[in-house]
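Task: sequence in, structure out. Protein: RNA polymerase sigma factor.
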Amino acid sequence: MEDLHAIIKGCTGNDHKHQKMLYERFYGYALKIVFRYIYHYDKAVDVVNDGFVKLFHNFHKFESRDGAQTEKLLMGWLKRIMVNTAIDELRRRHMLPEIGDLPDHIWQIADNNLAADQKVLYKELIEHVKKLPPSYRAVFNMYVIDGFSHQEIANALGISVGACKSNLSKARAHLKQYLKKDEESTEICNL
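Result:
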């Protein structure tokens, strides 16, 4: 934790060495966040880099606290910046779906608190989320995975709260169908 406080202090002072350390420490985390919105690997990397530029440009706004909460606060702030940067990119591209895949080594940079089976389930969930239409996918990611409120999503995407709730409901229905098909195909394979 001491190390993170030194990195944060260095980033606040616009020290490039500490910025590089923060970038390397949270790059995999940021890429997984962005990849839930933008599925082309090269484009996702560009968005992550843009997000880190925004993060470092506004680092003076981050309120560091002593104690164990610092890393969680930083990760939450980084998550919000990455989601907003990805949404901005989707808006520029008129939310066109992209096709691509994250290399397997990115999934190995997973949260140390997750068990191996949770990492596999997460990856499978993301594979199904990728199949959703872009508007459903964005709302699902923002609400279920990233924890935004309906009002925040509506504001970010420029839609009504009702449309947000409707898109979330439809996304969940699609995902249930995908999971049901997976379950049925698993049962057939086990026969």
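Residues 89 and 158 are 14 Å apart (CA to CA).
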